[in-house]
Specification:
This protein is an alpha/beta fold. The chain is 41% helix and 18% strand. Strand 5 and strand 6 form a beta hairpin. The structure holds adenosine-5'-triphosphate (ATP).
């Protein structure tokens, strides 16, 4: 693929409350279109674990190198977890594109705001995966069986903020994950066929709160 053709592959930002089904939908997309999509390789200051591969699992860097890149505005977002720094670099997103693949960025609304503010030239398609209702989101989080009560409450509170942000019109496309197969078809049309009008209307959550 020529550099010009590669530059036409817009990254896709997938955002939505925890438990709304982003991973489930993306897994289906990757399974149906192997090789078409790529995830950016994150940077970390932590040591590699057995079985991990540099440049594939992560870019392993020193804290100094990491902080240099922060100063150069080289990260879309970065954070520190239990003493180690992690980040998604602009370069890593560009690398996926250069490899001829569509970069999928699964990030939260904070990350979306950072791209819009600091890296608008990445020009991603912003897609919001919405639950059909807050009640269904709660059911899915419960069904997944991975959350404690406190974590569940935090995720639901965060969801309300994320839905408010989506309501402000920050996303190009909304896909409501009501019926999984229907939602998947809509998402596939949007991402693979470029039909951005195949999305849904954001449900009105106000009545539930
Ligand atoms: N359309 C759907 N109908 C019913 N259940 C669904 C649907 N889509 C996903 N689920 C289920 O909801 C749960 C949450 O889905 P998933 O883990 O994909 O969410 P997520 O948005 O990736 O969450 P996180 O941001 O926390 O990683 C899973 O148990 C999944 O099987």
């Amino acid at each position: 693929m020529s550099a010009a053709a590669a530059s036409l592959i817009r990254p896709v930002v997938i955002c939505g409350p925890s438990g709304t089904g982003k991973s489930t939908l993306l897994k289906k997309l990757m399974a149906e279109f192997p090789g078409k999509f790529g995830f950016s390789v994150s940077h970390t200051t932590r040591a590699p674990r057995p079985g991990e591969e540099a440049g594939v699992s992560y870019h392993y860097v020193t804290r100094d190198a990491f902080l240099d890149l922060v100063r150069q505005d080289g990260f879309i977002e970065h954070a520190e977890f239990s003493g180690n720094m992690y980040g998604t670099s602009v370069q890593a997103v560009e690398d996926v594109k250069k490899g001829g693949k569509m970069c999928i960025l699964d990030i939260d609304t904070q990350g979306v705001k950072l791209i819009k503010a600091n890296h608008p030239y990445l020009n991603p398609l912003y897609v919001f995966i919405s639950p059909p209702s807050l009640a269904s989101l709660k059911t899915r989080l419960t069904g997944r069986g991975t959350e404690s009560d406190a974590s569940m409450a935090a995720r639901l509170a965060a969801a309300v903020g994320e839905l408010e942000y989506a309501k402000s019109g920050a996303f190009d496309v909304v896909v409501v994950n009501d019926d999984l197969e229907r939602a998947y078809r809509a998402l596939r049309q949007v991402i693979v066929e470029g039909k951005t009008d195949a999305g849904d209307r954001l449900p009105d959550f106000a009545a539930e709160q």
